[in-house]
Amino acid sequence: MNWWANVADPQPRIGILVFPGSNCDRDCAYVVEQVMGATADVIWHKASSLPPLDAIIIPGGFSYGDYLRTGAIARFSPIMAAVTRFAEAGGLVLGICNGFQILLEAGLLPGAMLRNRSLSFICRDVHVRVENTATPFTGRCAPGQVLTLPIAHAEGNYYTDPGTLSSLKAGNQVIFRYCTTDGQTTTEATPNGSLDGIAGITNATGNVLGLMPHPERSAEALLGNEDGRLILRSLLDSILSGRYAPKPVLAS
Amino acid sequence: MKATVVVTLKRGILDPQGQAVLHALGSLGYHGVTDVRMGKLIELDVAATDRAGAEVEVKAMCERLLANTIIEDYRIELVGERG
Predict the structure, then answer these.
(1) pLDDT interval class at B67 (50, 70, 90)
(2) Closest chain B C-alpha to A44 CA, distance in angstroms
(3) pLDDT at A245
(4) CB distance B16–A115 less than 8 Å?
(5) Do the beta carbons of residue B73 and residue B8 sit within 8 Å?
């Protein structure tokens, strides 16, 4: 009955932020509970503080209708100040699709998103190559492993200035690149025009990951694809290792 | 006082919307158009009555929210009630 019994006791708690227009929050809560065996703590964006958490997921969707720019308004929601403190204290933060866009606008990850090169909303499976397995989100992947994951976005065309791109590469912060089925990174394999084929990056300290593909939509055999499970279970391993517990922040 | 903010993608960043419009214009026979840049127009009514104060305030709004200066440029036009 208690399918999580072999996973952890006490169960890890993962916060899932909900903004007006988020639409993957329930999918994320579902996989947190059913795939990761953790407790999902769904948190409305108006909250000004976070409960004790082991990780935060910022789910996909269209926060604030994508008005102005994707993620631009959500980043000023009250909860984001607490998320920033959590991230700066070393807490694990995973931003998926619109969550990635919010992390960029919030400055928790470098760069910005442009409209897809084709101007189309693209909703299909893509292949991404795992570029760095020494992260809290990819420990279960093999170096260079090709994952099949679904994307669904109109603004996933990652851009940053040449200096920032160099430092991302030097710091092994490019975690996923779009690729062909056999792992070749080509212009054609990049669905949205993203700079250097970038599909996902971490911050310099590695505890914040943003990616455009949706691991939560591809985490069960019933749905025909379990590749997303590798990312979710890697995150769970990292939580259970205790190495990524956010450091207590002293009140200033 | 009214402020108009125009936000466009920086020069050098591909503007796929602008390119689509450029091609559409070309197909209509307007071959003299060499580039199209799309952008956003934001009109603000601001309480400030002095130009300098309004400009400082609107510039801060642009830097913090209205534009993403990684990818966008902005320009501000102020139209005061007394000119």
Answers:
(1) very high
(2) 22
(3) 85
(4) yes
(5) yes
- CA dist A145 and A234 (Å) reads 14
Handedness of CA A250, A94, A216, A113 (dihedral sign): positive
Considering CB atoms only, which of B17, B20, B71 is closest to A159? Answer: B71
Residue to substitute from B68, B72, B73, interface A, most A β-carbons within 10 A: B68
At residue A116, the 3 state secondary structure works out as coil
- A24, A28, A97, A141: which one is catalytic? A97
Name chain B contacts of A161, Cβ cutoff 8 Å. Answer: 70
Tokens representing A75 are 């980043």
Fold that domain A13-241 belongs to in CATH: Rossmann fold (3.40.50)
Going from N- to C-terminal start, the domains of chain B cover: 2-80
pLDDT, mean over chain A: 94
In tens, the pLDDT along A53-103 reads 999 999 999 999 999 999 999 999 999 999 999 999 999 999 999 999 999
Ordered by start, the domain boundaries in chain A are: 13-241
With 0.90 as the threshold, say if the pTM is over it.
yes
Under CATH, which number does the domain B2-80 receive?
3.30.1280.10
What is the tens place of the pLDDT at every residue in A165-178?
Answer: 999 999 999 999 99
pLDDT confidence tier of residue A229, bands split at 50, 70 and 90: very high
Please give the residue of chain B at the shortest CA–CA distance from A116: B16
pLDDT at B57: 95
Residue A160 to residue B70, Cβ atoms within 8 A = yes
How far apart, in Å, are the Cα atoms of A183 and each of A126, A168, A195, A196? 11, 20, 17, 14
Chain B contact set for A117 (CB, 8 A): 14, 16
Give the three-state DSSP class for B21.
Answer: helix
Min CA distance, B76 vs chain A (Å)? Answer: 17
A187 touches chain B (CB under 8 A): no
